[in-house]
Prior knowledge:
Helices cover 75% and strands 0% of the residues. By secondary structure, it is an all-alpha fold. It has 2 domains: 3-124, Four Helix Bundle (Hemerythrin (Met), subunit A), CATH 1.20.120; 138-265, Four Helix Bundle (Hemerythrin (Met), subunit A), CATH 1.20.120.330. The longest helix has 39 residues, at 86-124. The protein is elongated.
Amino acid sequence: MELENIFDIGKYLGLCKIWTTTTKVIDSPFFSTMPIPLKYLFNKLEELSIEEKTKEEINKLIEKSHLAIDLQKQNRELRKNGEVNKEKLQIYTEKQDKLINQIREDLINFIPIWEDRIANKLRKIKVVKLSTDTRLNPEKLSIGASSFFKEDIWNNLSDIEKKDLEDASRCISLQAWTPAAMITMRAIEAAFRDYYQKILTKDPGTNWGQMIIELKSNPSVDQKLIGYFDYLKDIRNTLQHPDARFSQFEAEDAFHHAIHILSRIHF
């Protein structure tokens, strides 16, 4: 969740409060913009998926505001005519004044309730600051793993590869290096097994060393790609140890290799 959303909610509530203190509502240009802060407030609550009751109340006030604006337009049209229907003008004016007062009273009553409800909901939302201390692009990490790939390559990845890489990017942003390395290596291993099966048309085993030897002997193999797998063989074996822990460098290094490996396979 973006912190800007919380700031905006407070800003739009503040604009609604201003309207309740306006003494000459009809003559104020702010009156014609009144539904806009309510609409923006509704949209922000919608984005955060909170406060259904408040959104219902806001919608009702938006409807009333539109009715008041329509009455205001009708009054202006009557005044423009050469012969003013004073009786009709008085009826419209009284209706408008009554509706405006209702809106103001509703806002005066509702805004403290909305503030209390929204504050209680926002307190329950846990906000985490993502780390920018990384050799990887922190902005791309915050967007997701797909931002590190060309669109056509990303679309060719399997669902499990996509999900593992998304998890890895989140772990790196949260400085959870060991989980990041583990889930990245799982994506790399899945890619390695698929590549082995595609080239040699047989089921892969579990021994990376033996698989690499077999692939190296095949003339159609991308040797640079096999070099990546050979380099990562020891890291993959270390990950299988129950006490394995990994540093920031190792986690980010594995993620870098995953990007290069999958990009070469699906090029």
